[in-house]
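Lecture 7 notes: from sequence to structure.

We start with a single chain of 306 residues. Read the sequence below before looking at the structure.
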Amino acid sequence: MDRLDALKVFCAVVDAGGFSKAADKLGLSTSSVTNQVAALEAHFRSRLLNRTTRSMSLTDEGRQCYEHALRLIDGMSQLENGLRQASGTPSGVLRVDLPSSISRNLVAPALPRFIAAYPDIALRLTVSDRLIDMVDEGVDVMVRIGEPADSNLVARRLLAMDYVCCAAPAFVTRHGTPATPDDLARFACLNFLYPKSRQVRPWLFQRGAGPYAQTPPGVIAFDHVESMIAAAQAGCGIVQALSVSVAGPIADASLVPLLRDWAAPGPGLWALTQARHHRAAKVKVFVDFLAGLFDSAHAPLNDKQI
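Now the structure, written as tokens:
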């Protein structure tokens, strides 16, 4: 007796409400269905069904068997689908959720390369900075800043980031540069507001010992990182942001880095996937694509269950 097949037959009998109905649905003879359930009862040494000529009902043992069998059959189905997807050509709809600054400045400009490499994948991109339930919202890959806390997800670190202070070249020409974080009190500074609490984010610095926080008085505070950086590019003041957010402006010289010797490590950038989907071919190639975009001095961590 193949126990998995017998469990599938048993569940079909329960779902159909009878042996003959289950036999019709499965394309088997009624005697074959009856024999498989009987063999399962003999194996477990328990009666699973109370049956008479007119009715059928689950015993307590049968109810327990039915519930466990459903989970086992569903798990086997997910395993088979996952292995088929992992070994197949990357294809199908891929749903991705990204932070706004990451999407606009880094991922979106690089998408032509991904589309050319994987024409059978249809991307569905949503842009948000809020925490979402990946299962409820049907998201395959989510990119977020900061160590993920959900132990049901598989996480891959894409990038290690630092907090970087910078200002526009014209601002530096007019006002000079701070030599230490304490000097920031003499300069116009741009602060970031946490969107929910509306509190100013402290600036982080490190030199020698562990990082410490300091909040310089700010002339303007934003709850939108890109707007804060744009104001710094316009010469409004000094800004502190994550290195990934100011890499472009520093590269095109619209911002120049300051207080380099005091840079503090920031949170990592992570790609999150559902455990049951992370080996699917379409998911794997997109996460690998992201990892290629976010090349840094720190080697990415291996995939890990968190």
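The chain has two domains: 3-87, 90-306. Keep this in mind for problem set 3.
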